[in-house]
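Researcher: Please generate the 3D structure of the following complex. Treat every line as part of one assembly.
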Amino acid sequence: MIQLIRGFKDILPGEVELWQHIEKTAATLFEEFGFSEIRIPIMEKTELFARSIGEDTDIVEKEMYTFPDRKGDLLTLRPEATASVVRAYIQHRLYAQDPVRKFYTIGPMFRRERPQKGRYRQFYQINAEIFGVASPLVDAELIFLLVTLCERLKVTDVAAHINSLGCPACRPDFKQALSVFLAGKTALLCSDCDRRRDRNPLRVLDCKVPACREAMIDAPSLHDYLCAACRAHFETVKATLDRLGVAYRVDKRLVRGLDYYTRTTFEIQTGALGAQSAVAGGGRYDGLVQALGGPDQPAIGFAIGFDRLVEIVGLNPADLVRPPDLFMAALGEKSQQMAFDWMCALGRQGVRAEIDYGDRSLKSQMKRADKLSARYVLIIGEQEAAQGKATLRNMATRDQLEIPLERLVEAVRETIQP
RNA sequence: GUGGGUGUAGCUCAGUUGGCAGAGCCCCAGGUUGUGGCCCUGGUUGUCGUGGGUUCAAGUCCCAUCACUCACCCCA
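Model: Done. Output below.
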């Protein structure tokens, strides 16, 4: 038997209703806040990701699905969406009429990591990006959006974490100070951190190994090195969140794995997902549009881990499936034919009707109707057909009434539609 | 890439010192010849993950391999 690829999964009926509900809830919220949907391809030239995410990030170094196409071009299954949205913004000159644009997109991403709880090789993200606004107000707006989405989806046990990573004017100073500090701690660090020390010292701050955390207690704080502009920006973000009543924690160790982030970064974290604490994450990437050949426009965005969100929403998928309005139990060939025709007529008018396609006893058809949780059952047998009427049974109350066949579709609609 | 745990019916899982592969749920039919849920009776469902080895005999012991899963790393 051929099985699906490791780390990939099918989303089956029973669970897919939850996915649809989340998708609709998110799309509605984004539209309410002025975002437009943008759909981007799932493959891009490898170079796009290498240049935007960063050559020596884990994603680019070892997690991408990359292959040459027949012409020899190196292509990659997208590991994230932001690079493509930025590419589209530049390529179609979406900044020309109005540099301020708000986009959202929903779709699959691919990273070749070892699967575990809340992590798959094909996983889904809901992304939102805002271009052309340098104001810290939009930083707060995006965090507010995330928190609001969690509320609407009845997600509990989540907390917003925020941080500022500085900008090209001040981050180098901090990196320098950090490197000096780390040089004196070499003996205490885990092997990974020792390796990270010169390639990407910021990530040592994020290490979860207890010994490293211990060693980093008196590490220089990035916040002490922020330039006046970055400091003011971050203060406004915090003040705005306070005004909006959004709870958050400033987390100085919130570094993030993609190179393009500047200034504000944030995550929505949960304790309900085992080792995977991040349900959503994002940040400002003011230099990326220009770095990829576009105009010097600031930008900020986030990604929500759809698969992770599904696991923590406080909704029961069983409550989201819509059972049929009507089940038609027909006995005899002629009745079955009539029932089939009515089913089609009702379906066209938006009534969810079902029949049993086999030739089974009334009892077994009733059982099936019950199993499907049909609200009503229409019984049509030889007696009814002879008398020109059918029996409509309310399954909850067990009340039954007679319906004339000639205006059956209308009568059924009137009775069962609330 | 590294480490731990788990693979037996569609699902959840038993299976003793190696001795005929099981239960519950689900599904189907009947009890009730035209009325669901509860109950009763009967029935269907297996490369025991895969390949090798030990043995008279392997679901059980040994080796390998694959898959799933959790964790490390990193991230959504």
